[in-house]
């Protein structure tokens, strides 16, 4: 996080509606993270769940320009991971 105030004030109000429009649901956003094995996690982890990998890809198609603007407030590493059936 480079600029927490700018992130909250300028970036979140723009990106959250894009996430919600594609059915994204926040599972976690920040909070304490602990590494049990391997490199420690970054200082902020956000996990958003979509109903399918296709929906996540649709979100990315609409969000990538906004996320690139958000890089002045934070560094991002973004992955999509297909869920597994129990």
Which tags fit this structure?
42% helix, single chain, alpha+beta, two-stranded antiparallel ribbon, Alpha-Beta Plaits, 86 residues, 2 strands
Q: What is shown here, in short?
A:
With 86 residues, this protein is of the alpha+beta class. It has helices at residues 4-21, 53-70; strands spanning 25-29, 46-49.
Describe, in plain words, how this protein is organized in 3D.
This protein has helices at 4-21, 53-70; strands at 25-29, 46-49. It has 86 residues and is of the alpha+beta class. Strands 1-2 form a two-stranded antiparallel sheet. It is globular, with a radius of gyration of 14 Å. The longest helix is centred in the N-terminal third of the chain and has 18 residues, at 4-21. The protein has a domain at 4-33 and 42-70: Alpha-Beta Plaits, CATH 3.30.70.100. It is built from two helices and two strands.
Write the layout of secondary structure elements.
Layout (H helix, E strand, L loop, with lengths): L3 H18 L3 E5 L16 E4 L3 H18 L16
Antiparallel strand pairs: 1-2
Question: What is the name of the CATH class of the domain at 4-33 and 42-70?
Answer: Alpha Beta
Instruction: Note the beta-strand portion.
Output: 5-15%
Work out the radius of gyration: 14 Å
Question: Strands across the major sheet, in which order?
Answer: 1-2
So, CATH architecture of the domain at 4-33 and 42-70? 2-Layer Sandwich
CATH fold title of the domain at 4-33 and 42-70: Alpha-Beta Plaits
Mean pLDDT equals 89
Instruction: Please outline the major beta sheet.
Output: 2 strands, antiparallel
| SSE sequence, one letter per element | HEEH
Total strands: the figure is 2
Q: What general outline do the C-alpha atoms trace?
A: globular
Secondary structure tally, helices: 2
> Structural class per helix/strand content?
alpha+beta
Percent helix, as a range, is 40-55%
Q: Are there runs of 5+ residues with pLDDT below 50, and where?
A: none
Give the termini distance in whole angstroms. Answer: 35 Å
């Amino acid at each position: 996080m480079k600029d927490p105030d700018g992130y909250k004030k300028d970036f979140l109000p723009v990106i959250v509606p894009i996430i919600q429009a594609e059915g994204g649901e926040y599972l976690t956003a920040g909070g304490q993270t602990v590494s049990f094995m391997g490199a420690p996690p970054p200082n902020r982890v956000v996990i958003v769940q979509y109903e399918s990998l296709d929906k996540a890809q649709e979100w990315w198609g609409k969000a990538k320009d906004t996320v690139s603007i958000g890089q002045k407030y934070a560094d991002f590493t973004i992955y999509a991971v297909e869920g597994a059936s129990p």
